[in-house]
Design goal:
about 30% helix; binds 2,5-anhydro-1,6-di-O-phosphono-D-mannitol; 2 domains; Fructose-1,6-Bisphosphatase, Chain A, domain 1; 17 strands; 5-stranded mixed sheet; alpha+beta; globular; binds magnesium ion
Amino acid sequence: MKILPYQPNQSGLAYSVGTTLDRFIKSKQSDFPFASGELSQLLRDIALASKIVNRETNRAGLSNIGGAFGQTNVQGEEQQKLDVIANIRFIRALSKGGEVCAIVSEEEDAVIDLQNKSGKYVVAIDPLDGSSNIDVNISIGTIFSIYRRKTPVGSPILEEDIMQPGTEQVASGYILYGSSTMLVYTTGFGVNGFTYEQSLGDFFLSHPSIQAPENGSIYSINEGTQNEWENGVRAYVDSCKNKNYSARYIGSLVADFHRNLLKGGIYIYPATKKNPHGKLRLMYEANALAFIAEQAGGTATDGSKRILEIQPKSLHQRTPLFIGSKKMVKDALSYFQKSAASLL
Ligand code: AHM
Ligand code: MG
């Protein structure tokens, strides 16, 4: 009789089955000296809400929750029913968890003060990103940033607790509701991705220590707006075409970002005539992804400044965004600078 020792790595699947998000988060708690486990619990709360949103998303076509809700949000954008459902689900999970004192959401005009006397974290969230893709069964996402409040726990929430630059994030992440559902997050010690196993109802580590390729050959931009771009953006996109790069644009930031993060590419949402400050929101879209991009070896800028260093001045502030593989973003910046210099 032959007896062989168990060798978990032999199949190459050791990571894809085995390490749950929960276990992974617990094992990483020691990265934070004096950690009390609240951030870990907060990440678990977000994961739980995302499972519920995932369920709603999967059955959207059957349960009459597709389509418009009939109201616009504070930014004048038409809310979809799923936007509203996702917003409720995440706020409920974050308020019940007890670790969060305040929430900034794309769907809410003001900061939500949870009146939680023991919460030390502030969460900025886009509960459902890529709303225009909900009804056509194309990937959508959730984006979140987590900050530690600046004022003492239990005291009233002040502006300085909320209006923090991205460099102050203690964690950020996104959930991609795609061909499979994934949760990707960072706490400043690299980036890890987890795939949702529907039948087991859990996220499993599937993409450990994600590293963005330093260079790539994919560019993602809404070319329909090219007549509204600055010359530098146009010149850069022309250079991509001259190099026969692939154009890939889903119109869901999370999905476009995720593809480029894994394969190497650049995502651009520049200032346009319609959106002179860009379209994407600094506090709950750009910052979270910029933190992840940098942690994976990529870059994120607004065209002149590192995204993470921008001091927010208003809750729903917009920013141009150039994010992705380091060399591509650097290359894009050189085109903007050349074009700016030619105007002098
Ligand atoms: P949303 O948060 O209202 O869904 O808007 C953000 C979305 C991004 O996901 C996407 O990259 C972008 O808007 C697409 O905008 P456009 O249709 O102008 O290209
Ligand atoms: Mg969004």
